[in-house]
Specification:
- Two copies of one chain form a homodimer.
- Chain A has helices spanning 5-21, 27-33, 40-52, 69-79, 87-97, 103-118, 171-185, 193-203, 209-225, 245-248, 251-259, 261-269, 319-339; strands spanning 56-57, 66-67, 121-125, 134-143, 146-153, 158-164, 231-234, 276-280, 292-299, 307-314.
- Chain A starts with a helix and ends with a helix.
- In chain A, the strands form three sheets. Chain A has a five-stranded antiparallel beta sheet with strand order 7-3-10-9-8, sandwiched between helices.
- Chain A contains 13 helices and ten strands.
- Chain A is 47% helix and 17% strand.
- In chain A, helix 7 (171-185) crosses helix 8.
- Chain A is of the alpha+beta class and 340 residues long.
- The A-B interface holds A 101-105, 112, 135-136, 138, 140, 142, 148, 150, 152, 156, 158-162, 226, 228, 230, 234-237, 239-240, 251-252, 255-256, 258-259, 340 and B 101-105, 112, 135-136, 138, 140, 142, 148, 150, 152, 156, 158-162, 226, 228, 230, 234-237, 239-240, 251-252, 255-256, 258-259, 340.
- Chain A binds a DNA duplex (30 and 30 nucleotides) through residues 24, 26-29, 38-42, 44-45, 47-48, 58-64.
DNA sequence: GACTGGCACTCGCTACCCTGGAGTGCCAGG
DNA sequence: CCTGGCACTCCAGGGTAGCGAGTGCCAGTC
């Protein structure tokens, strides 16, 4: 029992109207707004069918229909035509991103841009460490038994960590070690560094083995154990937009979820494979976020992906617009990173 | 017409009860709850007086009384006894802050801690650049005409910036310049660096003047023009707490204000002079935040102040508890920074 | 067989009224 | 200066009625 053309039209119309008005849509209004060639009664029959199939539902007997998660899913997969961005929007994006001075700035601008363009909550993951490679390692003597390790990645991220040494060092020695570790590690992907670090310890001059072990331990910790990826968030005020009122009562759990970085990461971080992902309502694993939809994608210079970004909003969002905004922003950010 | 002792007691009781119950407090209930030696009628007279003086008001004729901003102000200045933290709270603070691996981590932990302890929205400013001094400057060649400048401050902040050079350099030269700028600038407070940077350009070997100017320009920009201080935020979910409902309708403007870094800075950043600042309702300059109160203070290693932190909540907050939590957290963070 | 018009029915929403209770202001008396 | 009492105000909550939108179903038409 496949859905015939007209039933699909009806579903599409319901989704579009509901997204636009935030109110259950009835058969009569639907026929009028969309100049359908059939009568309201016919549409009612189609609606009854769509309801049986689980694509729409009635909030109460004798109210209009509202799409279900399943209905949105079908809409997104089959019914929505991609809405290209207006030239004005494109320009806005470009203007907003140009002039960023460093990585922090890029990320902040991006997340605010995304929130503004989509009118929803935006999340941007900083370029992931494990997908970046090392551009430079720096050792700075803080005292005779403490070093500061600074790592700079090709995506512009900087991480630093204090190293406690078992013995004292002088500047010449620090300098020598710096040279060695840079030789061995620069250009390597972070995910492949552990073996090289091991090699460092194995090959080092025996007189320096204690020190090198300390450094290696901190390096490993910095590079690998640190899953603690950073995120930026913007647009939480959009959660309170007028017309999102029944959403309103549930604003609390959403804000709570958004404060958990781990949750955010799950949300938009692992968007590795698919080009763009849409998770609707209950498709979300995170319990607090049932009732919201997430549109996310990866970004990065060229074809490589170094991080994720996306937006979160009520299931009744404007999917075509959101999808094109998210992918456009990801594309522009990728270009920015490629230049830098 | 100074307020006599009993009137002050009445005001204090009104504030405490209102903060506890979130409901207008009437004369009878007040007498009972606080075992006052006088009758309700007497209290009513005092209330009428306090109302004339602008310390309390009635939401509607024949409802109980509610403190005004002015009433809270008097309460905070004169009537509240400081509530010392419980040992459990102290331990919680310590446990929460111990184990932070880097500055980012310290700031994040602090802001979450503060939000959790006070049950309000917390804001922490990263150690301010202009109040820090330079620990180390690093130059990394990215290509033959581009350098990456990395600055590390004594508070652990790291800033980086790309420098475009007018001519090519080799590694030896980069290294020489690195040595020079470190000699001249390490240990200097950022606010006093501009003259030293100028000196650098003036004294440099003429063959390198072009390059040094580029570097100096970027340095100046990084150090001075960059007012763009960073902030961390947590606890926005607390805005939706039950019992904060009339606060509820106005949640939107608050979230909006909180997304403006500039606003946040004004809020808690400039807490330079006074040890601890409480701004109540309309005392706030920021229009969106009328109706909220802000408790903020500075923090830093030892006696120096490198940044601000604070919380924001409804005017009907528990001031004594909030004040002691904010100052305790600031003190602990200061100690952490002093050790690092 | 598919579509249409009509009709009875359901049910949420709003407005309205009413009453109960809490709280006040004021006054006369201690 | 304080107290008890009293009349008054006004919010909150609950119950009711009417309205309107929308549905499901049925008989009729192309």
């Amino acid at each position: 029992m496949p859905l015939d053309e007209r039933k699909l039209d009806v579903l599409r119309a319901i989704v579009e109207d509901y997204v636009a008005t935030q109110e259950p849509v009835g058969s009569r209004a639907l026929v009028e707004r969309h100049h359908m060639r059939v009568s309201a009664a016919t549409v009612r029959n189609d609606m009854a069918f769509l309801e049986d199939e689980g694509y729409i539902r009635q909030p109460h007997t004798s109210a209009g229909r509202v799409p279900t998660d399943r209905g949105y899913r079908l809409f997104v997969d089959k019914l929505s035509r991609i809405k290209p961005l207006s030239p004005a929007e494109r320009r806005a994006i470009e203007r907003f991103l140009i002039g960023a001075v460093d990585l922090d700035d890029v990320v902040h601008r991006t997340v605010r841009l995304l929130a503004q363009v989509t009118g929803q909550v935006a999340v941007v993951q900083y370029p992931s460490l494990s997908r970046s490679s090392i551009r430079h390692l720096e050792l700075v003597g803080v005292s005779t038994t403490r070093l500061l390790l600074v790592m700079i990645t090709d995506t512009g991220r900087v991480e630093q960590r204090v190293i406690e040494l078992p013995e004292t060092v002088d500047d010449a020695e620090v300098s020598a070690i710096r040279t060695v570790i840079n030789e061995k590690l620069v250009g390597k992907r972070l995910s492949e560094t552990p073996i090289h670090i091991q090699a460092l310890v194995d090959e080092v001059d025996p007189t320096r083995i204690g020190m090198m072990s300390s450094i290696a331990a901190v390096l490993l910790e910095t590079l690998i154990e640190r899953t603690d990826e950073r995120m930026a968030l913007a647009g939480t005020a959009n959660l309170t937009r007028a017309g999102v009122l029944d959403f309103h009562g549930s604003i609390r759990p959403i804000l709570e979820a958004l404060e958990e970085e781990v949750v955010l990461l799950k949300l938009i971080g692992s968007a590795g494979e698919e080009p763009l992902r849409v998770r609707i309502g209950d498709e979300n694993e995170i319990e607090h976020l049932r009732g919201t939809s997430v549109v996310s994608t990866g970004y990065g210079p060229g074809a490589t992906i170094v991080g994720g970004l996306g937006v979160l909003g009520p299931t009744r969002m404007d999917y075509p617009a959101t999808i094109s905004a998210v992918s456009a922003v990801a594309r522009y950010v990728g270009e920015m990173l490629a230049q830098a």
